[in-house]
UniProtKB/TrEMBL annotation:
Belongs to the glycosyltransferase 2 family. Pfam families: Glycos_transf_2. GO terms for molecular function: glycosyltransferase activity. This is Glycosyltransferase. InterPro entries: Glyco_trans_2-like, Glycosyltransf_2, Nucleotide-diphossugar_trans.
Length: 335
């Protein structure tokens, strides 16, 4: 039998709540020449019953069941398991537009110099209603992508990307050190070997809720983003990738020593403090203490008083009071 045109790669971990909608949105694609790989990363809920019921009715679904090893291991295994030259990512809590695959495969066929194509998103909440986000849409060509890297803007929404398998494998796939921001690191590494862009159509309904990975691990994600961007600039300057062999990132406070550089620790702390201002889960987590330490050491107070009010709205009056006290007793470093 000939290989399918697309391998759909979905990792599932305790995803029963939204899994049916996600699977049905894949099976309902207008472009049907695909295999659907569903890797169960050690789920302990009813996920297996759900995806096996669909697999029994549709031969395009191929399931892989094993113990829990984490998302990065799962994504790299799906890369190895895929039979098609093109891989379409999908998460177990999102919903694809029926024309997604048709439009993305057409783009890749027409643009051989592009290795990755995503799309804009329609953002929804846990109940499927519209979720309002501020900010810009994703870049629609490679030049815009490179500018978005410079501007620290959005690059690609991971569960709606479709990419050429060999291009991703040739850069080493997903790197273990960048847990919870493994996609961001991958896009930055790919930017030097291929072109990346997004179709300016909303081909996925991307779900936002407290339980999702990006919400639960906001602090670790912000730290990883900063290091990945620093490594990108190191590579662009012709120096070796300092993160290439890492399986985990150093702790905050150890970056300068670990990478034999000066100022990376401060850059990590600054980005973390700025990024967590808009993250309810981050402000409720351990990143809050890091934010206070950054301010006590003279970090920028820009936007922090608004964060005090935000904490009150999030139902965290004690943390709001602690932040206000820190802002009142500490002055930022002179420019």
């Amino acid at each position: 039998m000939s290989a399918p045109a697309i391998s759909v790669a979905m990792s599932v971990y305790n995803g029963e709540r939204f899994l049916r909608e996600a699977i049905e949105s894949i099976l309902g694609q207008t472009f049907g020449d695909f295999e659907f790989l569903i890797l169960d990363d050690g789920s302990r809920d009813g996920s297996r019953d759900i995806y096996e019921s669909y697999a029994a009715r549709d031969s395009r679904i191929r399931t892989i069941v094993r113990d829990n090893r984490g998302l990065i291991v799962s994504l790299n295994q799906l890369l190895d398991e895929a039979a098609a030259p093109v891989i379409a990512r999908m998460d177990a809590d999102d919903i694809c537009d029926p024309t997604r695959f048709a439009k993305q495969i057409a783009f890749l066929n027409a643009n051989p110099d592009y290795g990755v194509i995503g799309s804009w998103t329609a953002d929804i909440n846990e109940f499927g209603a519209s979720h309002r986000l501020e900010g810009f849409d994703h870049p629609t060509n490679h030049q815009e992508f490179l500018q978005a890297v410079k501007d620290d803007g959005p690059l690609l929404c991971h569960p709606v990307v479709t990419y050429r398998r060999d291009v991703v494998r040739n850069v080493g796939g997903y790197h273990a050190a960048f847990r919870h921001c493994e996609d961001y690191d991958l896009w930055l590494r790919l930017a030097s070997v291929t072109k990346l862009a997004n179709i300016p159509e909303r081909l996925i309904r991307y779900r936002h809720y407290e339980g999702q990975v990006s919400a639960r691990h906001a602090t670790e994600q912000k730290i990883g983003h900063t290091v990945a961007l620093w490594a990108y600039h190191e590579r662009a300057a012709g120096r070796p990738d300092p993160t290439q062999q890492l399986t985990a990132l150093p702790e905050v406070g150890q970056f300068d020593e670990a990478f034999h550089t000066k100022g990376l620790d401060w850059a990590v702390r600054e980005r973390l403090a700025k990024g967590l201002q808009y993250s309810p889960s981050g402000l409720r987590g351990d990143g809050f203490e890091m934010m206070l330490d950054y301010l006590r050491d003279g970090g920028s107070q820009e936007g922090m008083w608004r964060t005090v009010l935000r904490l009150v709205r999030y139902g965290e009056p004690l943390r709001a009071a602690r932040l206000a006290a820190t802002l009142s007793s500490n002055r930022p470093l002179a420019a």
